[in-house]
Write a sequence for this structure.
């Protein structure tokens, strides 16, 4: 070691309280699409509980039922389907879905939510202006409120749902594709039309 290297080593050991090293050992691990050791169900429950605490939203649905709503949203099930399954009114599903920041493109496609968000007129005035019912205006305002809430949280919860539910679907499709491709490679050139 030259003099400068020794000097730097001494400074390093002084700064790190005499530790010779601050690196941690690394393991050789195989790649995986999974980043979390918890099951999808545990991860979903954690997200739902965090959202309940943070936003204190009121819903007659249990955590398990909210997880069903989230799963249904990613499976492209309608609010009506989920309402029938959970034996509740469709509006309960709609409110629960928005409380979970799960907003569908069709939730307010006729009205510019950015405009609705900033308007102070009552529902009747906006309904007349946009030629829709007051209940539709209330619905659109609820969607706008959920969007604002989600954006304020940097879409963190929506991203969590995406990573759990959308990634699970991708993982399933990829593993199925890999199995099918492997089977094709293994059976390539084999005679399959054989009479016994």
């Amino acid at each position: 070691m030259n003099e400068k290297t020794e000097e730097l080593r001494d400074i390093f050991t002084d700064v790190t309280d005499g530790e010779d090293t601050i690196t941690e050992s690394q393991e050789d691990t195989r790649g995986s699409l999974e980043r979390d050791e918890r099951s999808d169900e545990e991860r979903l429950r954690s997200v739902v509980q965090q959202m309940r605490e943070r936003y204190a939203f009121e819903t007659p649905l249990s955590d398990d039922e909210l997880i069903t709503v989230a799963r249904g949203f990613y499976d492209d099930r309608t609010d009506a389907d989920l309402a029938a399954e959970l034996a509740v009114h469709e509006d309960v599903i709609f409110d629960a879905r928005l409380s979970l920041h799960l907003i569908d493109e069709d939730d307010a496609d006729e009205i510019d939510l950015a405009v609705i968000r900033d308007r102070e007129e009552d529902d009747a005035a906006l309904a007349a202006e946009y030629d829709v019912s007051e209940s539709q205006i209330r619905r659109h305002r609820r969607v706008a409120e959920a969007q604002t809430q989600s954006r304020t949280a940097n879409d963190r919860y929506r991203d969590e749902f995406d990573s759990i539910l959308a990634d699970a679907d991708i993982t399933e499709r990829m593993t199925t594709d890999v199995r099918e491709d492997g089977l094709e490679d293994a059976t390539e050139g084999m005679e399959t039309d054989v009479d016994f």
Observations:
- The radius of gyration is 27 Å.
